[in-house]
Fold this sequence. Notes:
The protein has 9 helices and 4 strands. The chain is mostly helical.
Amino acid sequence: PMSEAGHRERIINEIVESERTYVSQLQAIIEVYLEPLKSLLNKPNPPCTEQRINELFSNFQLLYPVNRHFLEILEKHLDKNSTQANGKTQTLGALLINHFHFFRIYIPFVNHFEKMMQLLTKQMAKPAFAQFVLAAKLNPLCKGLSLDSLLITPIQRLPRYKLLVEQLIKYTPEQDPEHEQLKAALDLISLVVVQVNRAVQERERNEKLLEIQELFSGDVELLKPGRRYIRQDSFQKICRKGPK
């Protein structure tokens, strides 16, 4: 069986490797979508307005540099000789505490996420934008992922941090000073994950509303601000001539 130290090494490597993948996805959003769309604003009939570009992508301009720096710090941590703090080797727990504080910038992104996805749906109905997105997906940086799949990656990444830190705690002895540091890091990321879970639940409720809306004939719009899905049931209408 693998030792606790072996499990810790495996989890730390997974944190770093998965962060590399995540940062490359953020990079794709910036370099394949945001920057090219902005460069087309000066051309006739651009596929997207500047306002809509900002509404869809502006938060990623904040997330990308934060996570790129976080990745750099994680990679240095793997090199024991370059991870120094006041002459002493800095623990991974201390690094996570320092950088999870910066992840509070995800909260505005999470709160804006549902609106962003609704805007994307409306924008995809425009042929010029849909054609641009279809072509952009072929870029090697996207690795076959569609735009909506890329946009949701921050929502998926944050709970992953929480899970990986929980696994690290499991394989770190309680008497190890890093054990308390990891618990503090877990508390920090858990606060952000609560916001993520709320955003995911809101998106699921809105998707359910759209499904129900499709059942109606005519111009019926259920998805409006202030409305939320609660439950769905079948019922019988009782009338004088019998149930219907």
